[in-house]
């Protein structure tokens, strides 16, 4: 548990590749994908909130604050990250974001990102696996919110990779795991109906 770090679950996208709706509310292993994500993140952080747009009542069952993006339109994950930075109390030592479509992420993701930031104060620590960056899984310094608002609104730039490169990034690599003879990327995310079927297969292969 890292009580001084706030957690934000990014679930405010349009799920176009899934055909619309909320992909995080689809069923995986008998409960919602988002339920799996909340269960994984809650023990790792202090304050926790969902980043989502539209009618918040569809997330009421989670008992968490639901933060609508504070920039207009669907500006992508950076909009949810900005809203999380604006929401987190100054008592927090940063905000960890995770994607609400990624059910198997590591149970030590927050601890490992926080440990790296202790060595590199002010940097954005970003998770990677197999050498690939996952910029929605990152620890963001609180003080970045003004720069991020300028980037999104004044520069009209939505590219997460461009933002993190500009403000200093440190990569934190996480290992693949193997289960049932398969190598599994812990940051496997669900974009399409085929991905959801694959996640169900992976979940079954993990069960003892
Ligand atoms: N708050 C917020 N979150 C977003 C936004 N766009 C994407 N996300 C979240 O960021 C993560 C990665 O998003 P994508 O899968 O690339 O985008 P998506 O809109 O959900 O899906 P597609 O429409 O299929 O691209 C998901 O957890 C999304 O819910 C946004 O505009 N605002």
UniProtKB/TrEMBL annotation:
Free-text comment about domains: The N-terminal domain determines nucleotide recognition and specific binding, while the C-terminal domain determines the specific binding to the target protein.
EC number: 2.7.7.77
Residue positions binding Mg(2+): 101
Name of the protein in its database record: Molybdenum cofactor guanylyltransferase
InterPro entries noted in UniProt: MobA-like_NTP_Trfase, Molybde_CF_guanTrfase, Nucleotide-diphossugar_trans
PANTHER family: MOLYBDENUM COFACTOR GUANYLYLTRANSFERASE
Family, per entry: Belongs to the MobA family.
Chief location category: cytoplasm
Catalytic activity from the UniProt record: Mo-molybdopterin + GTP + H(+) = Mo-molybdopterin guanine dinucleotide + diphosphate
Pfam family, one: NTP_transf_3
A Gene Ontology BP annotation from the UniProt entry: bis(molybdopterin guanine dinucleotide)molybdenum biosynthetic process
Domain of life of the organism encoding this protein: Bacteria
Subcellular location: Cytoplasm
GO cellular component, one term: cytoplasm
Keywords: Cytoplasm, GTP-binding, Magnesium, Metal-binding, Molybdenum cofactor biosynthesis, Nucleotide-binding, Transferase
Subunit structure: Monomer.
Record's function text: Transfers a GMP moiety from GTP to Mo-molybdopterin (Mo-MPT) cofactor (Moco or molybdenum cofactor) to form Mo-molybdopterin guanine dinucleotide (Mo-MGD) cofactor.
HAMAP family documented for this protein: MobA
SUPFAM superfamilies with a match to the protein in the record: Nucleotide-diphospho-sugar transferases
Organism listed in the record: Mesorhizobium tianshanense
